[in-house]
Hints:
This protein is α/β, with parallel strands linked by helices and 259 residues long. It has eight helices and seven strands. The chain is globular and about 50 Å long.
Amino acid sequence: MPSLANRVALVTGSSSGIGRGIAEHFASLGARVLVHGLEVEAGEKIAAGIRDRGGDAAFVTGDIAEESVCRGLVRAAVERFGGLDILVNNAGIYSRASVEVASVAFWDRMMAVNLRAPFILLQSAIEPMKARGGGSIVNIGSINAYAGLTTLGPYSVSKGGLMTLTRNAAQTLSPHRIRINQLNVGWTLTEGEDRVKREEEHLAANWAEDAGKTRAFGRILSPLDIAQAAAFFASDDSALITGSVLDVEQFAIGAPGTW
């Protein structure tokens, strides 16, 4: 397994779902983690749980649609842990609307959280990472970046833009030994996905079990699956990889439910 011993990691949107999986997995690999999210009680509990297991973690809240919050998160990591080695741009919104009906306000909010915030966070992380001799930035994207459902038009654009940012910034920042890579995540079982399926799409409580039967390996992805891929890019195991986009999904040819 990769080692993140003595590394400082900031994981946005880590009070639930994929972000929580990443924060907890990174802590298990030795990283000191700044947990972030809008769910204060949940975030504090996650940070406390990491500390209870012998790790080091703190929690900070704030809406990353605000520039001051993004820059403040990086400052908080440096002040709390003495530096910053790893940034995981995980926080995002998955609201549904087609380009035909989406309002300008909807579009602006989507871009502010999913694309503008990662840019500000990335930019803010440069100097503290340079001070440590380099660093690793992992952007959490989506396979919808390539197109996506019609109801995910603005979301798809935000994740496609994130891919371009990843590759451009990787080229720009390589002289500083700052690596930037992206995970385009497929269908993952999170609290949010479960809520949407049950409350909005009115599926049965065991929908994930049924959905797994349509996937190549018998289940949909878990947050830990994403966390393990993120740990590879965050660690020295990928020391010579930058500007890469990895699709974390089951694209097995001929498998039911794949395309």
